[in-house]
Amino acid sequence: MVKVFISFSSADKRTAEAIYSRLRSRGIDCWISSKDINPGEDYQDCIVKAINSSDIVLLVFSSSANKSVEILKELSLASKKTIIPARIEDVLPEGAFQFQLSNRQFFDLLKDFDANINILADKIISMDVSEKKYKKKWFVIKKKHKRIAMLLLITIAVGVLTYTLRHQISVFFQKLEVVTSNSTVPSRQAPSSPTQMLGIHHNQQSITPSSPADPAKLNNVLVLLNGSSEYIRVNEIKALKKKIPTGLTAKDASLLLSGSGAYRENALRLIDSKIAKGLGGTGISKILGSLSENNRSQGIKDLENAGVIKTELSASEAAAIINGSGAYRENSLSLISGNIKKGLGGKDIANILGSLSENDRSQGIKDLENSGVIKTELSASEAAAIINGSGAYRENSLSLISGNIKKGLGGQDIANILGSLSESDRCQGIKDLERSGVIKKGLNADEAQMIIKGTGAYQACAVKVINGNIE
């Protein structure tokens, strides 16, 4: 039976003890400081011993836990343990907790506590069952490997003996051979260029196509992984990593990751270096599978760092990769913005930005603009499609792309771009467009009125900005 250490902030004592009681009622061996440290015992010593003897550390994660130095110490002691952060509040890790929990799969107890605590208990119980199966499986494999090792030693010995005899016979006949003056020596094909002779490639920046993965080696690994799931599958992948061939296709990688469930991102991190380089959006989406939110963003980071994601992604490919990132969509976009085709139009940019809104949308626009993804000469409707959804950050978004918009647009187009901007933000937006030459010269009175409408107390400021553009 696995042992569970419950780490919690004193502010969450009531919830932590409720979790403790529910897990124990399911037969899970749990330890919690508020109940399992007897009077007179050394508190710190008990904590260290309990963590060392545990298999799983269940962190009751909240805003209070997010600030706890003691919990950070406990996580450091448990760095080699399975850590399950269970969120009881809708908060994200901050500071040192981002480092400690960056690669951990969170379990939410935010809603429907009764149902979710039972799901958590089922997962912990399944870990115990899988662990027993894992140990039994590897015991059988080790026995089998001993027999294989013996056969390999015999094979190697025979091979060495055969090679030695053949070499000696070859030398003997070479000494008997008479080389005549008119003998011809077969010539080797000359290299076509000095760079070819030296093994130098002209395009050192390009990604060299990976050799396909050895099907036999891959199949052997898949056979050994057969039937394992969740974190046990991750452990088996880790143990078999050296046997996994390089050059995996998206389908190959997906087969290896299949069954890893909530631990898919952990498994992906183990094999990302084995995957073929320069895969497109469809392949990357297949590898990421059901990963969502922070885990999908982390998976994208793993693949990008390993050079698996190709450059020149189309808008639809980029969108397919980051779809599912949810609240982490902008973070995912920032990771691949440099891999997207340059000079895309408004419709494509809007497709990539997707559901991003407010500050996240503005930041996403900044990522794409800095990477040269947004084309120049945007029409008014394209510019509006990009910045729509920025809400209170619309003016900031507009300032980022004002230099990409067509020059000399009329009053109606300018009004469409400015959209819902009002007061000082509208005046600032007008300044951005005027400075970039977007507002045409020779505006009539109606056009000027369309532009300054909504500036309110800042109307005089707006009029001053476009005064030189009015006929």
Radius of gyration: 32 Å
Indicate the multimeric state.
single chain
Q: Mind summarizing the main beta sheet?
A: 5 strands, parallel
Mean pLDDT: 85
% residues in beta strands: under 5%
Order of helices and strands: EHEHHEHEHEHHHHHHHHHHHHHHHHHH
What percentage of residues falls in helices of 4 or more residues?
40-55%
Q: Assign the CATH architecture of the domain at 3-129.
A: 3-Layer(aba) Sandwich
The CATH superfamily of the domain at 3-129 is known as Toll/interleukin-1 receptor homology (TIR) domain
Number of strands: 5
Cα-to-Cα separation, first versus last residue? 84 Å
Tell me about this structure.
This protein has 23 helices and 5 strands. It has 471 residues and is mostly helical. Among the domains are: 3-129, Toll/interleukin-1 receptor homology (TIR) domain (Rossmann fold); 342-399, no CATH class; 407-471, no CATH class. Strands 2-1-3-4-5 form a 5-stranded parallel beta sheet, with helices on both faces. α5 links the parallel β4 and β5. It is flat and about 90 Å long. The termini are far apart. Mean pLDDT is 85; it is low at 133-141 and 171-206.
Quick recap of the structure?
The chain has 471 residues and is mostly helical. It is 55% helix and 5% strand. Strands 2-1-3-4-5 form a 5-stranded parallel β-sheet, with helices on both faces.
List strands and helices in order, with pairings.
Elements (H helix, E strand, L loop, with lengths): L2 E5 L5 H13 L3 E4 H4 L6 H10 L3 E6 L7 H9 L4 E6 L8 H6 L5 E2 L4 H64 L17 H4 L17 H11 L4 H11 L9 H8 L6 H8 L9 H8 L4 H13 L9 H8 L6 H8 L9 H8 L4 H13 L9 H8 L6 H8 L9 H8 L4 H13 L9 H8 L6 H8 L5
Parallel strand pairs: 1-2, 1-3, 3-4, 4-5
Helix pairs in contact: 6-9, 9-11, 10-12, 12-14, 13-15, 14-16, 15-17, 16-18, 17-19, 18-20, 19-21, 20-22, 21-23
